[in-house]
Amino acid sequence: MAPLPSLLLLSLPSLIAAHGHVTGIVVDGTWNVGWSAEMRYQSPIPATAGWQADNLDNGFISPDKFATADIICHKSAKNGNAYVSAKPGSKVTFQWNTWPVSHKGPIFDYIAPCNGDCTTVDKTTLLFTKFDEGAWISGSDPGTWVTDDLIKNNNSWTTTIPSNLAPGNYVIRHEIIALHAAGQTNGAQAYPQCVNFKIEGSGTQQLSGGVKATAFYKPSDPGILFNLYSKFSSYTIPGPALVKLARRMHARAFE
Fold this sequence. Notes:
This protein is mainly β. It contains three helices and eleven strands. The protein has one domain (about 25-215): Coagulation Factor XIII, Chain A, domain 1. It has helices spanning about 5-15, 70-75, 145-150, and strands at about 20-25, 30-35, 85, 90-95, 105-115, 130-135, 135-140, 145, 155-160, 170-180, 190-200. The radius of gyration is 17 Å and the shape is globular. This is Endoglucanase IV. It is found in: Secreted.
């Protein structure tokens, strides 16, 4: 492993302490390493199913970038060069390194078939289906959100691979949108994370339709431009409609 630049070493603790990223993916109890931006300084760069992204500062994608390629799998994302193996019905846990309690907001899981090799697929061609989501639970100003549950669960979020999904190669896009600054224009913060999955088994459900990530959200959407620190009694979940491909793992107040 090549040594990290000295200036980078000095700055890493403060950078990594902010916001967060997915350090690992647990499938049916088996740990798989996710992508961390400091891995780019290793030689060779490790093979990870998590897509490489230029987010060393654990930064976010702002609404003025929602129509650009950065919203797909994070800033300057490059294909993951490995796969996580799973099967229909597998429990999948996305393990974040940290998540601030102030960063309340919705959590989403999308899936897109690669129709070939996910390590080489053009990310701008991926058509995603939203198969899991969570958001506001109760209260207001700021209220209780599924991100609070994520923090209570050791900064982790568990979902389920669709129960009859056909075998093949897929990208799962896991995302948190933080709303603590969303009361002002361009204040919402999106943290998309992409992971390559190789689905095994004998499922028969083929995904059709889907939406490109660059068309998910608009800066003016009510779930994006949203004053968390106000009295509210509802929240409009942004993005494409949820498609119930699998039983969800979380009991939530809006269900």
